[in-house]
């Protein structure tokens, strides 16, 4: 009997077909179970910023493997064949499987890629970056004087090396409104780490709005707060004494490994400093009346929301989280859980950009308050003149920014180009993940062309787009009347179609590069047969963000 090899950390599209369909069902079913479990293990520490600064509290399947591993456990419990060889990069997972599935006689091989130097380097870079930013702001920028009697609204944003991206978080009318209103609305920037520190200084010195509109956290947090955030690595050891069981299976080893993770230590530092920032504002009798958080439910957001809702409880009903992005089925952390809300680490009110997103946002907490607001990032689509399909000639692969998924998309694009040298494939990388970090190939095939620039304008030249993963590509393609091919690289592809209520006749789900090529040829031959209805996904009459801020 042929041995079936299953690499647990591979992209699901590479899983053996004998386990893939079982795994996908388990993964989708476990969304709620996993959320309830994380809620349960979080209750004991729900008031502890250190707990909310650990990876297990995140529920983000692209940040840690917990949901994936739980689904693996459920899959193995259901399979009946015994010729299964398992490969994993987690010795902890190997021991758990061997302990709990002795009757399956599993052949498990564990390989662990050690990256101690990289881990230490990332940790030190995070610390040095925060110290440099702290002293730069305090030396070169004057601390803002704030009247203690005035009600303040704080707007959370990010400053990167990408000037265009810095302008894309909130509508322009907010920035125009600031300074003209009797309300005091201040933008609170978080600086995204970079090695090009002098370019960042230049951007900070030339911020797009008047610096009077900014409130720098660095003016309020203290040196002791910086060290408090750095020393989280020692304080988090207190969680290593607890036991974490899932369905009577002891998963403590996996949780401990995630707790000790150094992968994105800068987010941990920022999350804790956000919390300390609100504490210092409270101690200085600054009257914070309302909070607008750019809400992705990451560690930085948990620190922000816990800080505002805990230290300014009188106004915690004015805690808003803005989600000006597409809702992706697998990003379950974008939908607040009941315990997260009760623990104050998520906003009291979440602003989504479409009524289509209400159901999924309330999936884990039915009482979550939702407001349907305007979209700034996708506003242009409402007024863009869209070309008819037969006037477009490009085939576009759109990457999502998740390395494992983008590797598979790029691999498929290359395979198609090599199989058919007459076909031209265009590819658009994601701003957060450069193409060079995805492939080791020195040169791409000549008929694979990288495109840069505005995605909506590019889509207006494309009759079909191929994409996967958590990005806005599906939403934008549908709004631009571009046909979609969705490779099943991960579970939940059909669920994403449901969330956006897409026309099933204009979306094709595939499993391989050869299937993509067949669908492209079919689409090209039948362009005139495809019908498009008006997309009412985005509504120009949605509540303006400025109305929410000014009320």
Explain the overall architecture.
The chain has 551 residues and is of the alpha/beta class. It folds into 3 domains: 4-110, no CATH class; 117-379 and 544-550, Rossmann fold; 383-529, Rossmann fold. Helix content is 38%, strand content 15%. It has 20 helices and 17 strands. The strands form 4 sheets. A 6-stranded parallel sheet has the order 5-4-8-9-10-11. The protein has a 6-stranded parallel sheet with strand order 14-13-12-15-16-17, sandwiched between helices. Strands 1-2-3 form a 3-stranded parallel sheet, covered by helices on one side. Strand 12, helix 15 and strand 13 form a beta-alpha-beta unit. Helix 1 (17-42) crosses helix 2 (66-78), helix 11 runs parallel beside helix 12 and helix 15 (403-419) crosses helix 19 (513-525). It starts with a strand and ends with a helix. The relative contact order is 0.11. The mean pLDDT is 91.
Quick gist of this model?
The chain contains 20 helices and 17 strands. The chain is an alpha/beta fold.
Structural class: alpha/beta
Sketch the major β-sheet. 6 strands, parallel
How many distinct folded domains? 3
What's the mean pLDDT score?
91
Describe the strand arrangement of the main beta sheet, using strand numbers: 5-4-8-9-10-11
Distance between the termini: 69 Å
Strand content: 5-15%
Q: What's the CATH architecture name of the largest domain?
A: 3-Layer(aba) Sandwich
Question: How much helical structure, as a percent, in the residues?
Answer: 25-40%
Remind me, CATH topology of the largest domain? Rossmann fold
Shape: globular
Total DSSP helices: 20
Name of the top-level CATH class of the largest domain: Alpha Beta
Task: State the total count of DSSP E strands.
Answer: 17
Low-confidence stretches: none
Radius of gyration: 24 Å
């Amino acid at each position: 009997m042929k041995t079936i090899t299953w690499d647990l950390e591979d992209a699901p599209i590479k899983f053996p077909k004998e386990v893939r369909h079982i795994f996908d069902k388990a993964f989708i079913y476990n969304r709620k179970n996993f959320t309830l479990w994380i809620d349960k293990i979080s209750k004991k520490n729900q008031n502890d910023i250190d707990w909310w600064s650990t990876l297990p509290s995140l529920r983000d399947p692209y940040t840690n493997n917990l949901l994936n591993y739980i689904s693996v456990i459920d899959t193995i419990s259901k399979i009946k064949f015994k010729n299964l060889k398992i490969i994993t990069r987690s010795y902890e997972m190997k021991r758990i499987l061997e302990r709990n599935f002795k009757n399956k006689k599993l052949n498990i091989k564990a390989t662990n890629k050690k990256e101690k130097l990289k881990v230490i380097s990332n940790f030190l870079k995070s610390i040095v970056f925060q110290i440099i930013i702290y002293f730069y702001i305090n030396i070169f920028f004057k601390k803002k004087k704030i009247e203690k009697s005035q009600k303040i609204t704080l707007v959370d944003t990010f400053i990167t090396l990408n000037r265009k991206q810095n302008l894309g978080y909130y509508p322009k009318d907010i920035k125009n409104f600031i300074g003209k209103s009797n309300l005091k609305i201040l933008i609170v920037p978080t600086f995204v780490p970079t090695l090009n520190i002098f370019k960042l200084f230049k951007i900070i010195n030339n911020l797009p709005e008047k610096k009077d509109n900014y409130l720098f956290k660095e003016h309020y947090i203290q040196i002791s707060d910086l060290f408090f955030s750095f020393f989280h690595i020692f304080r988090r050891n207190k969680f290593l004494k607890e036991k974490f069981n899932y369905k009577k299976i002891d998963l403590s080893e996996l949780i401990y490994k995630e707790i000790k993770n150094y992968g994105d230590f800068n987010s941990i530092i920022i999350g804790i400093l956000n919390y300390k920032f609100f504490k210092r504002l409270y101690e200085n009798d600054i009257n914070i009346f309302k909070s607008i958080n750019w809400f992705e439910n990451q560690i930085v957001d948990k620190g922000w929301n816990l800080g505002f809702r805990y230290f300014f409880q009188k106004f915690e009903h004015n805690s808003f989280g803005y989600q000006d992005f597409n809702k992706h089925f697998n990003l379950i952390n974008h939908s607040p859980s009941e315990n997260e809300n009760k623990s104050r680490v998520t906003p009291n009110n979440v602003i989504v950009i479409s009524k289509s997103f209400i159901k999924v946002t309330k999936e884990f907490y039915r009482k979550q308050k939702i407001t349907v607001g305007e979209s700034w990032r996708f506003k242009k689509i409402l007024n863009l003149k869209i070309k008819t399909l037969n006037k477009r000639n490009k085939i576009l692969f759109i990457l999502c920014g998740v390395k494992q998924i983008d590797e598979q998309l790029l691999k498929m694009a290359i395979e198609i180009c090599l199989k058919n040298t007459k076909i031209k494939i265009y590819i658009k990388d994601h701003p957060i993940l450069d193409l060079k970090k995805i492939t080791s190939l020195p040169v791409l095939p000549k008929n694979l062309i990288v495109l840069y620039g505005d995605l909506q304008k590019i889509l207006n030249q494309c009759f079909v787009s191929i994409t996967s993963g958590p990005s806005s590509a599906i939403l934008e393609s549908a709004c631009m009347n571009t046909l979609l091919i969705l490779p099943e690289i991960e579970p939940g592809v059909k669920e994403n179609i449901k969330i956006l209520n897409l026309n099933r006749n204009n979306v094709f789900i595939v499993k391989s590069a050869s299937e993509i090529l067949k669908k492209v040829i079919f689409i090209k031959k039948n362009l005139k047969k495809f019908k498009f209805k008006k997309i009412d996904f985005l509504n120009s009459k949605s509540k303006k963000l400025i109305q929410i801020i000014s009320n």
